[in-house]
Amino acid sequence: MIERQLQTAVNNIVKWCDSNGHSISASKSCCVHFCRKRGIHPDPEIRIRAVQIPVVPDVRFLGVIFDRRLTFLPHILQLRKRCEKSLNLLKVLSNTTWGSDRTSLLRVYQAIVLSRIDYGCVVYGSACNSTLKKLDPVHHMALRICSGGFVHHRCRVSMLTVISFL
Question: Which PANTHER family match (predicted)?
Answer without folding.
Answer: REVERSE TRANSCRIPTASE DOMAIN-CONTAINING PROTEIN
